[in-house]
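Ticket #4471: structure output looks truncated?

Reporter: J.K.
Steps to reproduce: submitted the chain below (121 residues) through the standard prediction queue, then opened the result file.
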Amino acid sequence: MLDKGRATIAGKNGEYRYACPLDERFLDFTGINPNALKKELAKGKGDGEILAWIQANAKHKRTEPEIASWSAFVEHRAPADPESRAFFNELHSKTAPKREDIVTWFEMLDVDDYVSFGGKA
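Returned output as attached by the reporter:
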């Protein structure tokens, strides 16, 4: 998400959209405003500095166990409703049609990034 924000600021985000529905899950979990985060990214801060800013500015102060639980849930999240499944299946068919191990959103994002930059699925 941070790289998408930086690419958006630079006008080089292509088809990637900052604060997309996947990003919104993180933003909602932390209570961070996407525009405020983008302003911090525009200052040229690195990932560590942005993490410190998020921790200082998050409306929802989370414990380490809450963060670990939420992260595990999101990492293993798969499309749940028919519309999301159809979108996921379309991406899967275009990106890695012979891969049977692509099940979660993060697996799809990883293979899409890999293929988009010259890798073979």
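Triage note (M.O.): checked the attachment and the full token line is present. DSSP finds seven helices and no strands in the chain.
Status: closed, working as intended.
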